[in-house]
Amino acid sequence: MVRQASPFLALFLSGLAALIYQTAWGRMLHRVFGVSDLAIATVLATFFLGLGLGSALGGRWGSRNERPARLYAALEIAIGAWALLSILLIPNVHGLYASFGSDQSFTVLTALRFTLALLILLPPTLLMGATLPVLIAAVSRRGIDWGGRATGLYATNTLGAVAGAGLTGLLLVPRFGARMSIVLAAVASFGAAAVVFAAMRALDQGGEAPGTTDAEGGEAPGSAPVVEGPENSESPATVDEGRPSALPLATGLAFIAGLASLASEVLWTRVLRMVVQGTTQAFAAMLVNFLLGIALGSLLADRLVRRGGDPRRLFGITQLLLLLLTGVAMMVAPQLPRLLAMAQDGASLVPHEAGPILLLAALLLFPLALVLGTSVPLAWRIAGGDAAQAAHHSGRVLAANTLGGLLGSLAAGFFLVPNIGIEASVLVVALVHGLASMIALASSTRESRTRLVGILVPALALGGLLSLQPRLHVAYLVEARRDIARAVIEGPGDEWRQALVFLEEGRNTTVTVSQRNPGSLQLFNDGRPESGFSAGEPGFGAELVLLGSLPNVFVPERRSALVVGLGGGHSTSVLAEPGWESVEVVELEEAVVHAARFMHESFDEPFPLDRPEVSLTVDDARAQLVLSPPESLDAVVSQPSHPWLAGSSALYTEEFFREVQRALRHEGVFSLWVNRFRIEERHLRSVVGTLLAVFEHVQAFVVEYSSFVLVASDAPLTTSAERFRELGGEGTYFDAIGMDRMGFVGALELDTAGARAWTEGAARIVDDRPTLEFELAQLPEQRDLSTSDLDQALLAIPWASRETLAGLGVAPLEGALARVDGVRDRRAALDRLERSLPALQVEAPVERALVGAAIAEARGDFARALDLYDEAMASPEAVRRADALRDAERLHAGLLRRWRRAGRAAPSDPAPYVLAALAEGDREAAVELLAAHPDWASPLRAFAEAWATADCAAALAHVASLRDDRSLAVAARCASELGRFDAARALLERAGRARRLASHRWTTRALPMLETNTGLAVRYLMRALAANAGHAKAAEELAKALHAHGERDRAATVLAEAIEQNAGLPTATHLYGIAERLGVHRAVRRPADAHEPLRVQP
User: Is domain 243-474 annotated with CATH 1.20.1250.20?
Assistant: First the structure.
């Protein structure tokens, strides 16, 4: 039994090792050449070229070698040895590529990539391609059906590849890394050699082998039937007498089948990637299904032939079936989002577990692969020949099939999709299947009528398929995840295209721009959000402004910069705004460039690539950095795609950061965007820790909920007030997002010392084992690192040191106050700042009181804040903040008392005091205030001066500019005193609108911080109700917050007042329902139109 199984076990191990090699070598070389379509094609072409040529050579070696089993074992040993050597060789490719590729033309660079790939991959792939033909020669004996034996070996080899694909993508590389995966694959290669060595005597000397009869004359278990001699001339395993040599036909059909097979795999992978995303585990799932179908299909072919089928006719029928299955697949593909929703209970259309991905890949790929798997075995049968020709014929057919696959994959990715789109490309593949079917069916008979039928049937099938006009509904595939309920209920249709204003199928991805709301565009890459544009200034997020601005803030000279990924073009626009000598943008997908230009033109905004100093390179950014001369850049801005995607993760590894460091001058700056969605704290710690392992200085900023923006340099990160005045002037991007120098300081989340403390013990991210990629891909889409989670994670980490703030050009007191203003909606961040105050050495009593007051105010403890502000009244900043707080709380009498307090700093803005005087009717105070501020220019001044002198008629001449409800109420009283009642009513209506607007404004500010800073949110909601007691939303949320903190009576009072204000409106009934849910309805009067709650009888 061991001898019988040895060839199968050997080829299983060989196939397993081959897929591990392919994946691991591909990942290692992509870290040098990049993941652009051309770089990937270079590696793929080299691999397939070696396999194809190796198959042809293996057929020749096997037919000429008297001991093919020994040759096979030698091949496996050589493959394993080269694999181990490659672990040392591939890192050196990096140096060669950088040395010879710098400043070279595109043509030379492409040739260099191909040459280096050949040096590494051609030797082992030649040997790998030769293994199957050689082993076929070893197990074949004259007069025996070699085609059946070859098919069994082929299927076993492919099943090994299935195991290799699954293990590599789902276990080996994620857990052990690419290098260790190669070591394990080399062990498998050596194991295959050992297995054959053990059975070598039987194989080389004609002993018992798989497929021979056993001692009792029966058929060996699991073997192909034995053909006992040339007298079985009708066996499909032999050459058809009277016909021209069948080998050219077999190789031609194998070539066409390989072309269609790999083109089909490329195209359906593109389709699936729009549904399941392009993660490594998704690619592994697709490959597993494809290879499993190939393996089982080859066994199916052998079974069909053994039942007496003509291999030519069977080949033609299977190609015809593939034509039809292609049409079926086009109808199934648009239903995949619905199936995915059902598999995930409708929670998401972004899978994170292997199960749903395998299921979808199986539904689409497995039926096609099952029939595609019949091609090579049937081509072998067509080639025929006796056992002496087995190695030669099998090698030629395999070579043709492999080289056809190479051509098909390149044609699909480089020519078909970019020029005619995925949908039409799939139909072209169907046409190729139809052509192969015509050739095979026509060659299966000598009768002209039958030949005509063999040509007409595939032609009619193709015509029928085209007449049905099957659609992939690409727009639906990329848009479905935006609206899951609609996608499931409505399914695919042309109406999904209506939301898309741009769609381009590029070489790498499908890029779309959608317009769901007027004045807003969103850019998607294979259905994943990448960027957007909206009306207003600046038209994009604050995180992109910050990302592009960080080099401008910190670099001493603006000479040359590189931007990783164009995206929507926004960070490039921000970076280039102050003026650089040169900015190079490297974008992987050209369709993204076209989409970004489309968005800019839609809003009539200048496109950054049109600036004379900005240039574009369509390539992989990492590959470009490899070619950059050392210390040639002042800035690198990196905004890569999502790090869980295969390829994008390479832009978050230590090796990539070292490439950036090498290319930067000593004082150069690297700014990096990191997502805070679909991520956990440990992953963010790993990114920051990996960056700190390379650069001496790192800072992190947070300006919105979804991003973490990092800046790194080997020189201290310093800037100046002058630099901020330059960047924050009127009309700048900083001005557009309302960020000044203090806002920038307030957005600082980590300085270098804090980052080192936070990331102590964090795992580093390296090329060999990019944990970030694999672990994020397994997280649900909804998992994110919220700002509250981040604040809790950083609670024990000091916020910033005095040295850091000095580098930013601010004093510790200024920095602390800026931080309070920046995180007033984040209670945990305020607690962290309070803990950090000793390190900041804010020691003067007035300064300590001022910072303590600001923190207390931000927590919602206004009484303590005012007490502390009063202790710090010698500080103008304390006066300003205290005045603003008393004004917002409408503490008018207190404002006027403290204005007259001795020893306090003079207020810079008398507006709160003037409004307090108006509200209190204190004309004397108004006169004194206006006299004390003769230079104060405000629309309120003219009104207040006239009112202070009791000249109501003159005061009413200035009411048009009034906005505050207090001044409008005073103006209404003036109008009433003069008997101008219509004007008084109009002014009161304006005052009411101003109060309602203020109520809405306070409510809007409170809602986002109900969970992150409840104290301040409650105070804001109280202000909202003070301005408008009937604001239902403010009353509801305030009652809930009070109830959650055990204040049931206050919650009931709030709801009762709001219900009274909304009497007769449906809102009152709604608020009463809230009271019922909170269990405080007994203390609240039921609205007249409220119904008793329904009670279910037991």
Answer: yes
